[in-house]
Each structure stands twice: as C-alpha cells, then as structure tokens.
Amino acid sequence: MGIFSRRQSATIEQTQAAGPRTPFPAADATGVALDPALHALTGQWTIDRPHSRIGFSVRHAMVTTVRGAFADYDSTLYFDGARPSQSRAELVIRVASVDTGVEQRDAHLIGTDFFDADRYPEMVFRSTSTIHEGAESFRMTGDLTIRGVTRPVELQLDYLGSVLDPFGYERAGFDATTTIDRTDWGLVYNQRLEAGGAMVSEKVRLQFDISAIRSVPVA
Fold it and tell me: 73-79 and 43-47 as β-strands: parallel, antiparallel, unpaired?
C-alpha cells in the first residue's frame, strides 16, 4: 500500500526528533524522488486492529459532529518500495460492527435506512492505483463498494514512520482521509429541519488511523 516514505525503521524506544533530512536520491515513475530505505519495507502488511481505527465523522442537525468506527474488518496490504505504483490494498469491513457509542443509533445505521447489513453485510475498498506525491505524502485511488454500489474514491495518505516494537514486530503507521457523498452509494435517508438543512449531512469524512504489521511469510 503506497503509504510508506523515507523514514528508516527504528526501535520503538527511539523517540528523539529526527535530524536534518536529506534529498531523495532516486525517483519513481511519476518523477518524485524516493529514498532507498523504502526498499526495505517492500512486502505484505496487515492492519493491527487493537492499535488502529477505521472511522468516520458526519455533521448532525447542522450543529455538531457524530463520530463512529468499525471494529470488525480484514485487510491485505502490499507495498513496493522501489515502485509505489505497484502497491495495493484491500479492506473488507463488516458494517454490523459499527460503533458510535449509542446503541439505538448503531441499530439504525445497520438497518434498511442506511447500511442494510442483512442484505449487504460488507463494505469493501480495493485500490486501483497509488501515487507518491513527495516526502511523506501519497495518494491512493480505489473502488469503494457500499450496499452493492461501487464508485471510485481517492485517499490522501500520510506516512508516520516505522519501528521495531518490543515484541519483535515491524510496524508502519499512517493516516488516511477522504470525504464522500453518501447518497452516491444509495444512503439517501434523511430528515429535513424546519429551519432548513438536514438532520444528517450527506458529506461523510472517512478517517483511517493505521498501525500496520509486516506479515510473516508462510513457509
């Protein structure tokens, strides 16, 4: 997944601020310079659920923001350090695992007005391209499927660094965000307010706080 940049792996105890940065000595297919240290991160990765969050936020009643997350999902990530354009990702989310902190609201979300989890139990993202934009920034385009409708989305990805934790796991972290119009996927339920506007915004911000662990090759 095109989410890794120039920072080298370190042990988790190394928390000092990084020293002066040096220019990237090489360039990828887009002409953006790449650091050779990226090559060491090439391989398969998996999202570590206990230390990650697949979330969203949406305006409610025009005056506040409701936030939620999905607890149950599977992930497949592959990063190519020499050719970020070859990186790819797949995320399969069980929508019934949505948690906004209010049981009644969660039940409404998985019902027919929104996700209709009985008919469409999974929401799926599959990447189609990855571009290194420079420094710690990447852009990943992919197909997002909700309620049987598939449409393209574009994620802005920011690499946070990589470490070897005390348990021997190699980790890499990143943040990813995008904003979608939920009605494009058939999530059209709403209530209008007397003063104008909608009870639930059509714009939804997707937010991914990810700690990825390098997958151990199967012998």
Answer: antiparallel
